[in-house]
Amino acid sequence: MNPDHHSSLNPSSSLKSRFTKTFLRSLIKINKQRPFPYCPREIFQRCHRVKTAADKSLARAAGSRRVWSRAMLCKIRNRSLRRGCQQRPSVRRIIIGYQTTKKGYCLQKKMSDDQEVGTDQASKLRKLVPGGEAMDLCSLLDEAAHYIKCLNTQVQVMRRIADIHSS
Amino acid sequence: MSSRRSSEASKITEDEINELILKLQALLPQLNQRQASRVSVSKILKETCSYIRKLQREVDEVSERLSQLVDSVDITRVDIDSLITSIIQQ
Predict the structure, then answer these.
(1) Pfam families recorded for this chain (chain B) (predicted)?
(2) Inter-chain CB proximity B52 and A144 less than 8 Å
(3) Do B69 and A158 touch (CB under 8 A)?
(4) What is the pLDDT of residues A112-144, one digit of tens each?
(5) Distance between CA B42 and CA B26 in Å, rounded?
(6) How many Cβ contacts (< 8 angstroms) between chains A and B?
(7) In this predicted complex, what is the ipTM?
């Protein structure tokens, strides 16, 4: 079986391979950083680092054409900035862009058509999908579908890595 | 005049929304099995929310499992390329 041929036919398998490569690289970095966390705080920090690496790798693998992946990467960058890890001006511009999207430049706030579609459920969905607050209903549904597909891939790959290493 | 145009525009959006809702239904495991002809939109949205929450919980659980493994296993010794290939081909 030729893996390249397989990935050109099936776009979701190239998402899988992109995510796998990026995530494994991050895991190796985490593995090298602190080999023996003893206190519970360090254990918790390592778990958080693994989860952040997984989300970052997934958002990168999904590509910048999706609103949810861009929003996820912004959130991760803002979080690390608030901790004072990075102080690059280019990263600061990203924060400003994300904040203005949230506040003023929301795409469509017309919810009149959405009354029949259940605004409560739609607003719950907006909170779950990254960047969902600033989307109109059509984009929200489209992004949610793609987000679910990517989450499935993420869980599948991470479980496979865990299974391989625990045996 | 403008009312007809706006109703046409809202009809197009409604069709789009229905199509997207059907696409979502196809992704949800619980609703797909029953093959019911008409599942209400709010039920689909509710299932979508709970499915996303479930997947996010699973990611948290497997992250915790991996962080414990990362501590115990030296990943650098494993052949990365064969590992990647075995994961992708599964």
Answers:
(1) bHLH_ILI (PF23174)
(2) yes
(3) no
(4) 444 455 678 888 999 999 988 888 888 899 999
(5) 15
(6) 141
(7) 0.81
